[in-house]
Amino acid sequence: MSVSASQRYRRRVADGLIQDDPAQREVLAVLDDIADALRRETRAGLFGLRLRPPKAVKGLYLWGRVGRGKTLLTELFLEGLPDVPHQRWHFHRFMNHVHRELAGMPDTADTLAVLAKRIAGQCRLLVLDEFFVSDIGDAMILYRLLDRLLQAGVGFVTTSNVPPDELYLNGLQRQSFLPCIDLIKRACTVAELLSGNDYRLRALQHAATYLTPASDATEAVLAGQFRSLSSQAPAAAEIEINGRDIPARALGAGVAWFDFAALCEGPRSAADYIEIARDFHTVLLSGVPRFDAASEDPARRFVHLVDELYDRHVNLLLSAAADPLSLYRGNRLQREFERTVSRLIEMQSTEYLTLPHRP
């Protein structure tokens, strides 16, 4: 018998790993019902009992302020679905994937229907983290994409910082996007996670976000922070950004841990940093060096990285060779680095850490 997300949650509470939260338990009850429906549909398919094409289960649109535990609840839900084909994406990466797939397809009467059937052949459930629509290209195809996926039998579980009615707010041609909002509300239970606790902020406040000097001890602290923020142990991974693989010390839902060299000493561009800032609400960075005249190029990339993380309200936890004021001893970037120093200091503040991510 499968262990429900609610049961997994109670076990973690009993083990002292998380704090019991009635608001989270209410959402877990909805996720348990979705999991049961998915298992029934999956069993019907396995035993040849399905007399009709698969019907998409009613999903969940879970929204709430930053740090309320949306990611944790989603992970507990997915842990109980090992036999249910599903895919999990950050919303922005999913839409990039969709646009790439469409660009490579021959023109047909309904390319989105063809793509939806392709996705349906791989999964019954699509989990989209940080659902946030800001791009008109995404907005104009999203209704038809979601509609075709539902027709193909794919259900949705999504997390967001805003309610459906505020999606693509003030966007160009928003009137054309309103049917998509209606579709989301029909296809999903809309639930606000009303927890009064900001668990992410609590985790960040309990540990320094700027560690110096970089050492084995500070790396151990970063490893602990990754575990706390992602609920998983660090494991080496790779992420594809703009067609190139970038090695990471660890990747979790919304959390990434990189070495400085991987992000700032290779052929990286501001476009890479924009993608990272959109995909992750928290970035850990190990081994930021002291910059001098011989390291102006890595210093410039670091300036660009901090700019993009700051603009999108990404939490930055790092280990560095020196404090912000002592990091740069070069010649060409003195003015630019003054801004970086100011931002590194501000990014340690409670005011910054409570800002919602802007993917």
Automatic annotation (TrEMBL):
GO annotation, biological process: cell division
Pfam families, alphabetized: AFG1_ATPase (PF03969)
Gene Ontology CC terms: cell division site; cytoplasm
Keywords linked to the UniProt accession: ATP-binding, Cell cycle, Cell division, Nucleotide-binding
SUPFAM superfamilies per record: P-loop containing nucleoside triphosphate hydrolases
Signal peptide: none
Entry's Gene Ontology molecular function annotations: ATP binding; ATP hydrolysis activity
Protein name: Cell division protein ZapE
Name of encoding gene: zapE
